[in-house]
Specification:
The protein folds into 2 domains: 277 residues, 3-Layer(aba) Sandwich (Aldehyde Dehydrogenase, Chain A, domain 1); 180 residues, Aldehyde Dehydrogenase, Chain A, domain 2 (3-Layer(aba) Sandwich). By secondary structure, the protein is α/β, with parallel strands linked by helices. The protein has a 7-stranded mixed beta sheet, sandwiched between helices. A 6-stranded mixed beta sheet has the order 11-10-9-12-13-21, sandwiched between helices. Strands 7-8-22 form a 3-stranded antiparallel beta sheet. Helix 2 runs antiparallel to helix 4, helix 2 packs across helix 6 and helix 9 crosses helix 10. The longest helix is centred in the first third of the chain and has 25 residues. It is built from 15 helices and 22 strands. Helix content is 40%, strand content 20%.
Length: 490
Amino acid sequence: MTTHTATVAGVAVDTRHWIGGARVASAATFTDESPIDGRALAEIARGGRAEADAAVAAAQAAFPAWAATPPAERARLLRAVADGVDKRLEELAIVETTDNGALLRSHRRGVMPRVAHNFRFFADRLEELGHEDFDTRGHTNHVSWDPAGPCVLITPWNAPLMLATWKVAPALAAGNTVVLKPAEWSPLTASLLADIAAEAGLPAGVLNLVQGYGTEAGAALVAHPGVRRISFTGSVPTARHIARAAAANLVPTSFELGGKSPLLVFADADLDLAVDLAVEQYDNAGQVCLAGTRLLVESSIAEEFTRRFVARAEALRQGDPRDEATDIGPNIHARQLEKIDGFVRRALAAGARAVVGGGPNTDLGGLYYRPTLLTDVAQDSEIVQEEVFGPVLTLQTFDTEDEAVRLANDTRFGLAATLATGDPERAARVTARLVAGTVWVNCFFVRDLRAPFGGSRESGVGREGGTWSFDFYCDVKNTVTAPRGWRGHG
């Protein structure tokens, strides 16, 4: 007898799609494995064109009623989803840790509370959304945000539920219906979200879930003519494929892509703070798109900075992410570990020096890669120019502010940058010249949903967050009305 439920860390997870308010199986499945120990967790329904067509049809059918739902009622339902997340926070945390290997303590304390906050924030923002009317020669201009239609949202594996709800919440708040396609390496919490949304009373077809591979389910979804918005977080090559498919139907896209962000440390910085910021870049085993993986340190302090950094990095505890004492868990998949190690091996062969780490953690085996710092790297080298997406940092030095900015901007990416300095005037000068969607000064990863988020150059297209999300997920309309004293018949 075929079962459609997997028990993961004691939690029952339905492995089927969620389409039109019902669970839907597929003839084919794929195996989802835990990066912690390689154990098979579930056989997941493997969607393709048929499931994509069914999900878009369900989203189209549900769209008119959902778009017409008063904003206050949409907001109430989003808050009900947030309440459901809060009630199941522990289950969501342990399932996601088991599925993608990120730290359980982070899921409990930060990630899952942020999932609930995503829904509450965009519910609040919906009720506040508006623009002051303005006058043009006695005519009144009124700006409104009209729901665009069915949205396809394709999300990554490194923070599966948080990044999914970062897209789902504003799309639903805007009055759109959604088809969510989670990453095949970490699909489980998306399925739990479908249950939570249904229990909260979200109407059938408003939120749909199609699981599967990007080349099958994802490709069918982004090429569907019934889709009106596509938001994707992932790699640059995949974004190029999506852009070509979306262009055929003139569908607006929002892309958050790769990063190779710099962390600049000037001699006037608080050195302990700078080291703290640098070590923090190993968060989530380096699987963070915003990570400042290129340490750029002023020459006069480079030796002392490196000494302190090495001491801190070597004290990090690597192991089972379910252990509260663990600082760094496994990487997501064997293919990702091989990719990371390939970058490092090629860099070492080209003359780089590993002052920390430099290879897999053979004591732990499996998918654990040692936190690594490479020096003696050339600016045009692969390890400096390409995204590794693992616990691998490089360190280069500079002598002048101009050189620091030149090195920081000298990649094809522009997602984020971090700056450590004790001089406010220098901070203002340098941040003005950095090419990045987000710049942090003497801090890292401070995020506010009211702020715009996105990347420059090949790190992305568009901005989301706050009103920018509504601008993307809506058709923004301006209505111009003539002065009073209308003329009519009769």
